[in-house]
Amino acid sequence: MWRYVLLALPVFCVLPSIAFAQSGPACTGPTALDQMIVSNPSSGAYEALGTWFAKRRQFSCAISAFESALRLDPKSWQGHYDLGLTLLSSGNPRGAITELKTASALKPNSEQILLPLGAALSETNRQDSAIEVFKSILKENPQSIKAIDGLTKAFIAEGRYEAAIAALKNAPPDEVLQLNLAVAYSKNGNPDESLKVLSAIIKQHPAYAQGHFNMGAVYVQENRFGEAAQEFKEALRLDPSDDVTRLSYVKALVVLAQFDTAAPIMQEYRQRRPHEFDALYFSGVVEKGLGDYAGAEKFLRQAVAINPNYFDARYSLGYVLAHLSRPAEARPELEAALKLDPSSSKARFQLAAVLRALGQKSEANKELSTFEKQKEQGVKQDVAGVKANQANADLQTGDPQKAVDLYRQSLVEDPGNARTYYNLALALDRTGDHRAEREALEKAVELDPKLARPHNQLGVLDLQENQAATAKKQFETAISLDPQYAEAQNNLGVLSGQLGESAQAEKLFREATENNPQYGQAFANLGMILASEGRFPEAAQALSTAVQIEPNNTGALSAYGMVLVRLNKGSEALTHFRKVTELDPKSPGAHLNLGIALADQFDLNGALSEFSEAVNLDPDNAVAHYNKGRVLLDLQRNSEAKPELEKAIQLDPNSADSWYLLGLISRQAGETEAAIRNFQKSLAVKPDNAEAHFMLGQELQRKGDSAGAIEQWRRTIQIQPQYSEAYYSLSRLLMQSHPDEAKRLQAQFKTLQAAQHITDRANTLGNFALASADAHDWPQAIAQLKEAINACGQCDSLAPLHKDLGLIYCRSGDYKNGRTELLAAQKLTPADEDIKKALELLQTVQSPTL
Q1: Count of alpha carbons within 13 Å of 69, Cβ hemisphere only?
Q2: H or E segment to which residue 149 belongs
Q3: Which of UniProt's keywords are assigned here (predicted)?
């Protein structure tokens, strides 16, 4: 039986500013233009001549004229554009691509140029590049119908039907786009949705022949041949010139055995295309159906001569010859048919009858025996199918071992079924038998190398075994076999991310989300790769989608929370972090993330509770001990913070931040030697920490080691040239020993102050306080801000000084004084949104000091 071509897409067409067509050999333009070129050859004159030829469908003349124009003005985007369009229309899309790319470089982001460029790329089967071009248009103009049309046709050409459907669902109303949607639904195995779309198109445009044709094609797909025939008939009435519809109508009538109706339609088709294989083959089929075997023989012989490797033609000719009582001639045709399709039981049965008619009973019995074996194998396959279906059900209901047993029983009956081997592999994966899983997957690939899913699963196994190269190859093979296989694209994206290929990973994750808009993990992975590149607004959008699709995906929730923190949306982040701890209360990481978010929202006691839980769940987690120690230090509970930080260092001796905080504790306790030792340990691991160098310098000065202090403060300035307090401290220390350098440092200090608009003592102290806060030295920061407020009196900086002091009190866990200072600042600047937000946060914080 022939194969229907289901759902033909209308040809993608870009309507250019000029209409191109085929020319005759003479290139004679209008007299005025010819005289202008002779007297004053210019780029504009040749452009006008090229346009004139193009409108008259004279390709070669138009191309020659545009090339002459470009020789005079090679930087003309219009010239390259017109030449590109001419080449595209003349059947040279590769040449068109070169010219249109040049035009686009001269006039970037032009939809006029990009549309035919995308079409040319599609015509050369460079669908990936075409898709990127159409996407670039839609980025600037999301409602471009032509770009959506080109994009979705490229998706469909690549087999990425889900991506096409997603792009078309919210597209502007247009019958061509709706037809694309119907095609995508049908090819994706959703005929009911396709019929709904087509019905709506036909209702709105009842004379739209292409709509009726595609409706008929979907009916064929559903084996509803009577309805298909009616649609093809109507499409042919609306467009009698469409031979594709004419032939499809004949095919439907043949299946319905309505040969009388098919005959005149087939005759007209044959008159229009007398030497075409389909015209001859289907003429033979119709005559055969009418019982005119002699007429059928004539057409079928011609068809076989054109294509001797078409099974149905060889079989039908053998059948006709057998019924004309010419078994000797029928035999080679039927034998040829069986070579083309050895599984055909009808051809084997006819051959057995022909052999019997020739008196070759032994050979006839042999063919009948094979025929019976094929029937028996068919029965076995039916039994195998029942067992496989039972196994599928057991796998879905959570009994993988029972599924394994049934799949193995199914394979005894049907050992050549690649899909059953793949399903067996899935069941074995659930049981944890990965060795047997790999064997089943390799057998599936051996039996059917074009089956995409086993390749993907082999890639997963390879990735688990750190075999990156072979995993990559398996994923790429799976995608080449099934271009809309979102899971394989996601897996390859994960591997690309692990290999540091961020751009490739992003591309693959985006393709996965386009091909399966409900694939939450792909959106989550896309969000995480974007976040890793600092593209937080885009990351938030992707992760928000992931969470909407999979509300209980803890990985997506955690990543979304982290991104929201980076976007200064801490209160929103808390909601997601809390949900993660509810979903996975035994996860130390979940409690750590929640604790960090709570600390960022001033809830230090809540943060301490979460960090403590993380330590309880994982006592050997250095990060958990560090964060617990850090928040205890912020709460000024230094004696409790110290053992936590020491434990963090015991677990991770290279924890520079833990050494640094221990240095602060020693400093605040007046233990200069211990402070020096701890700061030095921190700097040994993290030598570019400007705050640690500054603090170490202060402790060395306190010890009396002026040279050591000078060295550390110089290093501070080298690392952080804007560290004004280091300039101030260094200049004062060098005043006696190096007065010239001290003056230079004083000048640099004043320059920094001026740049920061810090012109008096109050602001200078306020600036020093912020530096102390950055260094996590809350007591020093608070003392400096109090001194700054006293120095300020009623100066213009009073409000920001109160605000900074309030925020630092909150950071240190003293919410009562924090509220007092923030209210004082709000009284002075009622419109400050940061103060308002901080006070709102304080209302939600539970603290014994309030």
Answers
A1: 23
A2: helix 145-157
A3: Repeat, Signal, TPR repeat
